[in-house]
AraC-type DNA-binding protein (Filimonas lacunae), 302 residues
Amino acid sequence: MVSHSSLNDFYQGSGASYPEGVSKDIGHFNVFEAEKLFDKVTGNRTMPYSRRDYYKVSWIRGKSTAEYADKVIDIPQNALLFATPKIPYHWLPADGNQTGMFCIFTSGFLDERKSGVVLDELPIFQPGQVPVFPLSPEESAEVEYLFRKMHKELASDYAFKYDLLRNLLLELIHFGQKLQPVSVLSTTQNASQRIVSLFIELLERQFPLESPRQLLALRTAKDYATRLAVHVNHLNKVLKEVTGSTTTETIHQRILQEARVLLKQTSWTVADIAWSLGFDDVPHFSNFFKKHTQVTPVAFRQ
């Protein structure tokens, strides 16, 4: 099943103590040493596949694997992993030798009024990006320093420690963004790029599907063009120019990604999945899925 993991779920399942004195005005932030936490149910540190209700940045030491709906990323040694509530993933350590640190935080902690940034507009948290970065020994040492400093400051009684922690977290995020290709970090947008950004944001808002009763509000290229107040031909033209894919191809790929998640991680019937994703019937959905994956939905689930 695709589960949702709230902050309370995290603290109850990990054995960690919920921090005292955290107010809604501050937003939530905490930092941990990974080897000191474990799952109370399984007795290990595996992070199950789920859509978490918080952001997470992890410094990982040791061989492990990060599994997403459409890709599996092997982590040979040191890595920096960024997680957003929009994208579920499953972290699986190869053995019991994993160490490292991680921090969790809510969007309120990096509220635009406090930090000057819009969290979901940062390149590191954009859909479609590879959110895991291998680290050299030197880079790993820099990341460890930032985490150790956050851990130390969080335990202090400094009156402005949350302001300092916010700055340290942003420094960690920018460290990760510097590891991305330059093309991903370009902030110079022309009109076409702005339309594409708005389209992608609108597309991502349709997901995740959380119930068989939930139906995609926008399904076709015309639906998105109407919502964006542009002609469908113009939307298709700029998407092709910027991304290399047409509007319909982009929509289909995102629907296919969600279909994979629902087939693998829920007990919904194929008919329920087909209906939620906007298909009139199961044969239509099955033909669509097989065209893109070469297997039927039933075969993929098995």
Observations:
- Residues 264 and 301 are 6 Å apart (CA to CA).
